[in-house]
Design brief:
Largest sheet: none
Order of helices and strands: HHH
Number of domains: 1
Helix content: over 70%
Distance between the termini: 59 Å
Structural class: mainly alpha
Shape: rod-shaped
Radius of gyration: 22 Å
Strand content: under 5%
Amino acid sequence: MTTFATNTSARPVFGNFFAALSGLVETAVHYYQYRQTIKQLSTLSREELFDLGLTRSSIKSVANQAVYGV
């Protein structure tokens, strides 16, 4: 009977790498969504923003809440 020793020490390294990479991708996607939300809201007129209950000064705050939930 033949037995093989497996090296499991490399698995956590790759797991940590992919977890970090996943975190970076998620951060980039959220930032892109944040910038797109600001861009789209910025194209609206003052009257259109007022209809939505927004002002120009609240655009960044609204985008932050929409994307990050903060």
